[in-house]
Design brief:
With 327 residues, the protein is mainly α. It contains 12 helices and no strands.
Amino acid sequence: MHETTNLNPSESEPAPPWIKKWIVATRPFALPASTMSVIFGTVLALTIAKTPLNLLHFIAAFFGMVFLHTGSNLLNDVFDFKKGIDRSVNPVSGAVVRGWITPAQALRAGLVFLLIGTVIGLFIVSRVGRPILWIGMVGVAVGCFYTWGPLPLKFNALGDTAVFLNFGVLGSLGAWTVQTGFLSWTPVLWAIPMSIFVVAILHANNWRDIQSDQSGGIKTMASVLGDAASESYYTVLLLSPFVIILIYLLLSIANWLEPQMPMTFLITFIAIPKALKLINKGKSRKNPAMPLDFIALDGETAQLNLIFGILCTVALGLYALLAMISF
C-alpha cells in the first residue's frame, strides 16, 4: 500500500483567515456529490414529466441539500476526530484535524447547518405536502445515523448504502417530487448510475484509509473487502453506471421501459476514458506515477461524478431541444 506523507495536526500550517478556515471546514468542493442529484431530478421532472419549473421550490430543494450535506460533513469530522480515526493532515482534511477549529466549534456549526436545512425542508413540506415529507424523514434518519447512534452506518460497512440513498436516489426523487407533487419510480431508476458514482467517491476515500480504519475498529466496505477486492469493487463502481445506461437504452428500444430513456443519454459515454484513467490509478496505487494519485483518488472520482451528472442533465436538455425542433 502506498504510504502517505501526512503531517500531524501539531505540524500543520498556522490557522488561515476566518473565511478560508471555514471554507476548508465546510468543504464546498464536496457539494456536487449531493446537489447534482437535485439538479438532475429537477430537469427530469421538467423534460420527462413535462412539469413547469417552480423556481422557488428548486432553490429551496437545492439549498436545503447544501445545508444538510454541509452539516453532515461537519458532524462526520467531529465524530471521526473523537474516535481517533482522523488524526493526520492530507490534501482533503477538514479544519478540525488541522487544528484550525475545535471539535466543539465544528459540532455547533454542524447543528446550525442541519437546523437551517431542516427549516428549509419543513418549508417545502408546507408547499408540497406529505409525499416530500416521507422522503425527507428517510433522508434525515439516514443522515443522523450515519455517524451517530448505537449502530452508526459509516462504521458498520453501511456507509456506501447511506450515500447511495441520500446523495443519489433520494435527492433525485425529492427534487422530482418537489416539482411534480407526486412520487415516481422514474427518478429513482434513472438516478441509479449517478448514485453509484457517489458510492465510488466514498469507497475511494475508504480504500485509501483501510489501515487506519481497521486499527480504529471501523468497518467500511473497503476494510471488509481488503485491498485487492477493493480494487475490483472500485472497477465495478466506475463501469457499472455505463452498463446500466446501456441496459436502460436497450429496454427503451424494446418498449420495455416506461418512460423511455432518450438516446441522447449516449452522450454520457464521453466520461468512459476518465473512468478508465481512474481505474488505472487505482491499479497503480503501490507504484503511482504521481505521489498523490492514490491519495487524491476520491477527489478525482468526485470530478468524474460531476462530469457524469452534467452529461446526464445535458442529455435531458438535448432530448427536450430535439423534441421542440421536431414539433
